[in-house]
Design a protein that fits this description.
The structure holds 2 protein chains of 2 kinds.
Chain A (H helix, E strand, L loop, with lengths): L12 E4 L11 H10 L11 H22 L13 E5 L7 H6 L3 E6 L2 H13 L5 E4 L10 E7 L8 H10 L1 E12 L3 H13 L16 H10 L3 E2 L3 E6 L3 E5 L5 E7 L2
Parallel strand pairs in A: 1-4, 2-3, 2-5, 3-4, 5-6
Antiparallel strand pairs in A: 6-10, 7-10, 8-9, 8-10
Chain B lengths: L3 E7 L3 H12 L4 E4 L4 H4 L8 E4 L1 H9 L3 H4 L4 E2 L2 E6 L6 E3 L10 E4 H13 L4 E4 L4 E7 L2 E6 L4 E9 L6 H5 L5 E16 L6 E7 L2 E8 L7 E10 H9 L2 H12 L6 E4 L3 E9 L4 E2 L2 E3 L5 E2 L7 H21 L7 H29 L4 H16 L1 H12 L12
Parallel strand pairs in B: 1-2, 1-11, 2-8, 5-13, 11-19
Antiparallel strand pairs in B: 3-7, 4-7, 5-6, 9-10, 10-11, 12-15, 12-16, 12-17, 13-14, 14-15, 17-20, 18-19
Helix pairs in contact in B: 1-5, 1-9, 9-10
Classes of the chains: A alpha/beta, B alpha+beta.
Chain lengths: ~260, ~400
């Protein structure tokens, strides 16, 4: 029953398509940094503890955005039934798995092969059928998707405009894009880069403040690829509430984008 | 056969089965495992075991569609009278007419019947009665329980709902803080001559409280109350062995003739009184609910109500998380449940414990202080409202499922 027979139902797999000649948009040293974290990515108390705490918060935003965009039943547990989703910079699948449970046919792409490997392994254990691909998003000929997400990724990308061009190319007509990233403010510098990394809440070397991007900059980069960005929603931190959605944009923010 | 369900509920008593049913109403599937035979638990006859269902708990039963089944069996508590050894200084909690009742009394048997009936009609509940668990297992991707007949049940989240001696909790190495009162509660159903007028009595003796809880009249019109009589551990065995006549005489001595003659007493049972609490009510893919998480003195009748609040909070958290695509065993969801329930259960437990200790001090001076204290509460509307709201279970951060 529960012995090792579960795999017959799942075929989560990793396709590796590394192409050394490609003009990579992810900095190689950053991909390597996350690759070494892959092993305990799914441990809620491990090095990605902060990301685990962030997950329900950003998922609440994702769920609302899905309900608003497609006008679905807010109570349904499968609001993405019949839809395809692509998560770029998927890590070990922290977002892909919830999207799959919400009914989507999910593809996750990550530059670090260790991540894609760890993600596929975990999805199989969870009994979820998710396709994981290791490589650069721009190199993937995988068609278009109804939902394209890339959360806490663009700050690690060197050529942000090229990255957004690649993402936009994967968005199906009428589709929805969701992005989140730290803001470039004094607060984020103090809390995210210097504070959280110093006390070990976030692994050292995770963030480079100069690479952070402000909401208005993101908005114009998106406009350049024909997408309209929503009003940003803040992801703030408070001692009592922990991480929560907020009007306060100083630390981190999340947006939707779509062609209108 | 691979029947992995959302929840693997170990313990199908009042709290465990209410959880299964509440979860099912939100589309969450479960296995429920219990060693007992439901036919025995719902056998005819009133054994005196009864529960005060607070307004909040009643809202939960209403929200899961049990109110119609239960309505005919409940006896309204119109007021609560608290007295010290039947002396003057009578504390009377009677709400204004617009404030509604302080709760309802149910025979546990009637609660079980309604729950079991509803559960057996619910396809999302796989009910495994008369089943012994030989092994429990929790790992990265799920939980499982091995039954003595060789079957293995699987789920995403394991729930310990086996009551105060929860083997699942002990198995998980969760340590509980506990102390015993070296007292035992003796439970029995009484039939008496005069009506109880829907008053719940708490009569405090230095040897321990003596509570009379109003039950519905029998079909033949005779009047009933449930007795919860606290006696010293050393006296318990003797009290239980008394003949019916001698037992009735002892009871009558403590009640005076407030209900007239007591004509009969049902089977007696007893359980040791204690207080236990654990700050840690979750572990990896495990949540504790009801008495497995916290046990309190039954004097305020809040034990089941606390457990039902656990149910409301846990299902609220799980259903909300599953809407977001999280699985029921997600550590963030369990963390939220623990933060929500941990403190609330502890404060109710402490308040009840304090009440018992205050009233447990022997001597005339203590008695006078108690009477003064009761008079003070009686004259202070804010305190009185607080106590009544506590009895109704409407204080604190209420799960949606327990709201009207």
């Amino acid at each position: 029953m529960s012995d090792a027979t579960a795999s017959s139902q799942t075929n989560s797999s990793v396709a590796s398509t590394s192409d050394p000649s490609s003009s990579a948009t992810i900095r190689p040293e950053e991909a390597a940094h996350f690759g070494t974290l892959a092993k305990d990515w799914w441990d809620p108390k491990g090095s990605s503890a902060m990301l685990h705490k962030l997950n329900p918060v950003r998922l609440r935003y994702v769920r609302e955005a899905i309900d608003m965009h497609w006008g679905g039943d807010v109570q349904s547990v499968k609001p993405l039934a019949g839809k395809t989703a692509l998560d770029v910079g998927c890590g070990a699948g922290l977002l892909c798995e919830p999207l799959a449970r919400m009914g989507a046919n999910v593809t996750g792409v990550d530059a670090a092969p260790e991540n894609a490997q760890a993600a596929a392994l975990h999805a199989e254990g969870s009994g979820l059928d998710i396709r994981y691909i290791a490589g650069e998003i721009g190199q993937q000929n995988i068609g278009q998707f109804d939902l394209v997400t890339s959360l806490e990724v663009i700050e690690h990308v060197a050529d942000k405009q090229a990255f957004l061009t690649d993402l936009a190319a994967k968005l199906a007509p009428g589709g929805l894009m969701i992005l989140s990233t730290p803001n470039r403010t004094a607060a984020s510098r103090m809390l995210l880069v210097e504070g959280a990394e110093a006390i070990g809440a976030i692994p050292k070397g995770t963030h480079h403040w100069d690479d952070f991007i402000k909401p208005e900059e993101l908005s114009s980069l998106l406009a350049n690829v024909g997408l309209t960005m929503s009003e940003p929603t803040g992801i703030a931190f408070g001692p009592a509430k922990g991480l929560h959605l907020s009007g306060e944009l100083g630390l981190n923010y999340i947006v939707t984008a779509s062609a209108t | 056969m691979d029947d992995k369900r959302d929840l693997l509920i170990l313990g199908g008593g009042l709290v465990g089965m209410t959880l299964a049913l509440t979860a099912a109403r939100k589309g969450i599937s479960s296995h429920v495992v219990d060693r007992a035979d439901p036919a025995e638990l719902t056998a005819d006859g009133f054994d005196g075991r009864a529960s005060a269902i607070s307004t909040a708990s009643w809202n939960l039963f209403t929200n899961i569609g049990l109110a119609d089944r239960l309505e005919p069996h409940g006896c309204d508590i119109a007021s609560i009278a608290v007295t010290d050894q039947m002396k003057q200084g009578f504390l009377d909690f009677t709400p204004e007419p617009h404030e509604g009742t302080l709760g309802r009394m149910f025979a546990n048997r009637d609660l079980r019947l309604a729950l079991f009936e509803a559960a057996s009609e619910e396809p999302l509940i796989a009910w495994h009665a008369k089943s012994e668990i030989t092994q429990r297992h929790r790992d990265e991707h799920g939980v499982s329980a091995m039954l003595s007949d060789g079957r293995e049940l699987r789920g995403d989240l394991m729930i310990a709902a086996e009551g105060r001696a929860s083997p699942t909790r002990d198995d998980a190495g969760i340590v509980i803080a506990k102390w015993t009162y070296s007292h035992r509660a003796i439970i029995a159903g009484l039939v008496h001559e005069k009506p109880h007028d829907n008053v719940a009595w708490e009569i405090f003796y230095s040897t321990g409280p003596f509570a009379l809880l109003p039950m519905l009249d029998l079909p033949d019109g005779s009047h009933r109350s449930a007795l919860v009589w606290t006696v010293d551990e050393n006296d318990a065995a003797g009290t239980l062995k008394l003949s019916d006549r001698a037992f009735l005489a002892e009871v009558a001595k403590r009640m005076g003739d407030m209900f007239g003659q007591i004509t009969s007493v049902g089977p007696r049972s007893s359980y040791p009184l204690g207080f236990h609490h654990t700050a840690k009510i979750v572990d990896h893919r495990l949540a504790l609910i009801g008495d497995a998480a916290h046990g309190i003195h039954p004097i305020a009748g809040q034990g089941l109500n606390l457990g039902l609040r656990d149910v409301g909070a846990l299902v609220d958290v799980l259903a909300d998380g599953m809407r977001l695509g999280l699985e029921p065993g997600d550590a963030q969801l369990l963390d939220k449940y623990e933060k929500w329930r941990g403190l609330d259960a502890f404060s109710v437990a402490l308040a009840t414990d304090g009440l018992t200790r205050i009233f447990g001090i022997p001597g005339k001076t203590a008695s006078a202080v108690r009477r003064l204290g009761m008079a003070g509460i009686q004259r202070t509307p804010i305190l009185k409202t607080f106590f009544m709201d506590e009895a109704r279970g409407v204080t604190g951060d209420m799960p949606d499922l327990l709201k009207a």
